[in-house]
Amino acid sequence: MAVKPAGTVKPQRVDRAVKTQIEWLVDRHDGAPNFEMRRFTIKPGGSIPKHYHPDVEHEQYVLKGRYKVGIGDEVHVVKAGDSIYIPKGTPHWYRNTGRGNAEFICIVPKKEQYDSIYVEAESC
User: Fold this and answer.
1) Whether the Cβ atoms of residue 39 and residue 56 lie closer than 8 Å to each other
2) Where are the domains of the chain?
């Protein structure tokens, strides 16, 4: 069991993204056997490029801001309080065109090498 007080998780830069940070709130290092929870912050003008994860679904909850998320062939504008489901293998991307930070919680199944399942989807 782990309790992390607010502000104790160090934000990290997200590879391949622009003006985006990730905080690993609960992960394998905390003893979580099945899922990992992350908070993403996309600053104004920031983005996460189109990509997919062959074996990982995403469940997300929007905490703050208003931003665009592409899921497959659809583009959605999401805001605080919205929930998002991205099936495994589905190309997706994020773009914050607003004036404030966009923040969301993302929960994914635990994988031993999560970075290895991030595949750029330029041709998708």
Assistant:
1) no
2) 12-120
Q: Each residue of 91-102: pLDDT tens digit?
A: 999 999 999 999
DSSP letter at 117 equals G
- At position 117, the amino acid (one-letter code) is I
Enter the DSSP assignment of 115. G
End-to-end alpha-carbon separation of the chain, Å?
40
User: Considering the chain, what is the average pLDDT of its residues?
Assistant: 89
Cα–Cα distance, 23 to 41 (Å, whole number): 9
The pair of three-digit structure tokens given for residue 74, joined into one six-digit string = 């659809």
Report the predicted TM-score, pTM, of the whole model to 2 decimal places.
Answer: 0.89
Q: Rounded distance, CA 40 to CA 26, Å? A: 13
| Strand blocks (E) in the chain | 12-13, 18-26, 35-52, 58-64, 66-71, 74-79, 83-86, 92-95, 102-109, 119-120
* Domain 12-120: which CATH number of 3.40.190.10, 2.60.120.10, 1.10.3720.10, 3.30.70.2750: 2.60.120.10
